[in-house]
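Quick one: structure for this chain?
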Amino acid sequence: MTLNQKNVLLVDGLTRAGSAIARALKCSGDFRIDVAVTKRTFSNTIRRMIDFHHIDSIHPVGCTLYDSSFSDRLIDIVIRNNTDIVIPTGSSPVLISKIKPQLEKLCTVLIEDYEKVLTFHDKSKTTAIAKRSGVPHPATWLPQNVGEVKKLAGEITYPLVIKARKGSGARGVWYASNRSELIRLYSRATGRHNIGDGFLHDSSRPMLQEYIPGKLHDVTAFCINGEMKLGLTQKRLLTKPLSGGRGIVNVTTKNEQLLHYAGKIIDSVRWNGVILMDFIIDDRDGQPKLLEINPRFWGTTGLTIKAGYNYPYYLILDAYGVKIDYPSDYEKGLYCRWPVQELFTVFEKPFDMRVVSDRLKGFISRFRLKNCTYQF
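Got it. Here's what it folds into:
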């Protein structure tokens, strides 16, 4: 069997990243692309219609990622479809890395080992790695209870960020503007009924971080044995929510300082595969600070590929020992928009007609952007 005849299974693959990977692999060679989904929804059906020429078949797993039967059902799909390569996307990388030893008996699994993935899944551990690697990051506190928070409350500068240690985007993030608000929000977040129910993703205590004013930037990287072979930087021009979250309008840039810091982190943990690092460039001193690291494909994977770096294909080439002919550079100034999500931000609070009007004008004006790709 030649490389371009491999059967690829994208787990949780009806996502922005999954669609981008399916397109990239179909264009790179005659791969068969299957998708395993945890549930069939209307939006999934629409995405299947849009991507019909990239995805060969969809396999409902029939349960959630956190169901005890998920791994057995996924393994059954792998066996029945003669899967050669499993690529986790969406919310699945942590679980797939955990069952990687079982899956590797049947196929190639393109995710780092579980212990390494967990290192970056917990934001408090990420901060410790940044400190050890000499990479700037926000001041961070790890209180274990409300009593410790009350002691810290009088010593900390506000505003302050309360952040769940495990989670992504803007989920599990709150902002406290004073002492009483900090205590109230922390108590609410750690209430028994909130743990594991949308506020916190596990039983760990939230971390407190210095609030840093500035713009969000990302580094997307492809690594082999702790060496960053390729790295791309991008700026989030608009996020959802507007206060900071996933990038819904992005542009590729070339920030050598961010790439340098990303390389230090990658070398420190000997990372292998793809990774995304979130930085904020501090308005106060112009210096970047590392916020978090996501050891998986990201929502703007399509922008990285469009700019010239086909990370999914390079992952497969490396896994099979095929020499990679790396591109010399990527395209800077390439924009990517997610218009539907942009429209949602038009009506975010604060809500008045002047603000809505200004946001709507901005939404319309962005259609004049040249060199722009769209995700619907």
